[in-house]
Amino acid sequence: MCRVVAYYRVSTESQGRSGLGLQAQNEVVTTLCRQRSWEIIAEFTEVESGKRDDRPQLNAALKRAKVTGARLVIAKLDRLSRNVAFLASLQESGARFTAADMPEADEFTVHILAAVAQRERKLISDRTKAALSAAKTRGVKLGNPNGAEPIRRAAKGTTAALEAVRRNAAVRASEYAETIADVQATGAGSLLAIAKELNERGILTARRGRWHPSSVRNLLLRLGASA
Length: 227
Prior knowledge:
Strands 2-1-3-4 form a 4-stranded parallel beta sheet, with helices on both faces. Helices cover 57% and strands 11% of the residues. The two termini are 32 Å apart. The protein contains 11 helices and 4 strands. The protein folds into 2 domains: 1-161, Resolvase, N-terminal catalytic domain (Rossmann fold); 172-223, no CATH class. It is an alpha/beta fold.
């Protein structure tokens, strides 16, 4: 049976509190899952105020789908098809994906939508550059009054970028931190016991495999914990 992580989205805090729109989204997702004999194992609701670009609930939903091997299901693709942040997060996660209103859409469809959205952003950038060039021709002074100082500051970012690459494994390990803590809270104290509990919960390793004492040990070392 396919397992599902459902993701719902409302645009304002008032809608989030009232549930306006959530019931309809829940109904279409539930109907699709019932028709296909899919099991919903988790649900996440994003309340977007329009003042922030991050999507914490989407990230949480994608993380849950990733560690459980589940499929992410949303109610309506048309509401998110032009949302660059959503499409980028979905692409980077590599999660399987279905939209209840367009169940035929797949990861390839998302790739196309992301490409179109990126193209639109490039066109906007090109128009901005053309406008700046025209302003410069008219004699408008452009540029940073601090001269090359911003460039010198940017050069310092190279070291930070290299450090970020080295932290990738640790960041990936952190995705399992809450799950590991919950498993240990049940009394699983040995590496074998933790591996067994993770497998029983359907949690997959970063390489989409089963857990063994050695993989648990490596994860705990990255998390700075001990069994």
